[in-house]
Amino acid sequence: MEFRSSRQEEGWQVPSFDVNLFCPRGHRYALVIPVINEGGRIRRQLQAIAEELPPVDVIVADGGSTDGSLTADFIRTLPIRAVLVKTGPGKLSAQLRMAYSWCLADGYSGIITMDGNGKDGVDAIRRMCAKLDEGYDYVQGSRYLPGGKAENTPLERTIGNRLIHAPLLSIAGRHWFTDTTNGFRAYSRRYLLDPRVAPFRDIFSRYELLFYLTARAGQLGLRVCEIPVRRSYPVGEATPTKIAGFKGKLSILEELWRAATGGFNP
Hints:
- This protein is about 35% helix and about 20% strand.
- The protein is built from 8 helices and 11 strands.
- The strands form 2 sheets. The chain has a 9-stranded mixed beta sheet with strand order 1-2-5-4-3-6-9-7-10, sandwiched between helices. It has a two-stranded parallel ribbon with strand order 8-11.
- It starts with a strand and ends in a 6-residue tail after the last helix.
- The relative contact order is 0.16.
């Protein structure tokens, strides 16, 4: 069925999407996993989450996969609440706007996000929940903190994150971050609904929303922290990423600069 949030009438801009609902709501927090054509990686990740059984409802935010990895028969074997399938325009940030709008409309108190390519350690989901319970509004996962682990991270990624990305967003967000390229993070309901944030805008289409939400929380004086996580890149395989080529990397830098300099602020 196609979903239209009543919040859209209040000015939210959310791409059209279909909702495939598999079970009722069971927890305070939602775990949103954006994915598109991740094949066996997303299947293994969902199975690992099922084995871990963290206190979250799992919501898959599918950008339009065509690889057959998210069939209803497979999803029904796991404790997954819903698969949302974007039918409107946009890339990662559009998938996140889709999922966040649905979760907020359904009353969740907080939202955790992790990538759908199997790089993140699922054991940190519980620690994300604990930080939300403590009243934090933005929780960033970091492979570089004591207790975290960076496995097989490409050198180019390490240099870009440590020397460019994290310093820029740390200055902009008035809080020192060590791993701002990491998509494993959590947001409070209060943060996402703050009118000074306004994340539900079509301006967020690619990776902009991740960068913007990293900086905006500290600017508004909300509670921010980092926690250690594990992030592992596969050995002997192509790097799981949707960012390719010089043009794609240049676009990321442009989005980063705009987020750091207030270009996305309402």
